[in-house]
Amino acid sequence: xxDDLVAFIDARLDEDADLARRCDGGDDCxxxxxxxxxxxxxxxxxxxxxxxxxxxxxxxxxxxxxxEVAAKRRVLRRHRPERxxxxxxxxxDGDPFPCADVRDLAAPYADHPR
Length: 114
Ligand SMILES: [Zn+2]
Fold this sequence. Notes:
Number of helices: 4
Largest sheet: 3 strands, antiparallel
Bound molecules: zinc ion
Oligomer: single chain
Low-confidence stretches: none
Helix content: 40-55%
Mean pLDDT: 93
Order of helices and strands: HEEEHHEEH
Number of strands: 5
Structural class: alpha+beta
């Protein structure tokens, strides 16, 4: 269970990062900008968005996704399991593994089949 959950989170982060890199196109077009009803995807401007949705899309551009993936990987690496006697606990908080932080890292992927 605990190794499965870490592997599950790692796989989802790999997918998020891979998709973000493919949207970036390898030409540093990972920072998107919203202007009213238009999102500037660097390579192309697409109009027709509600301004709030345009801001939401731009706010979750590939550059941000890659920063979030990197931050989540650092959290996951800190909250590694360790054996203490006959228990497996998180080395950061001492809670039974997977701790709440690791479970929270999995939470955004609750709709993904396991
Ligand atoms: Zn922990």
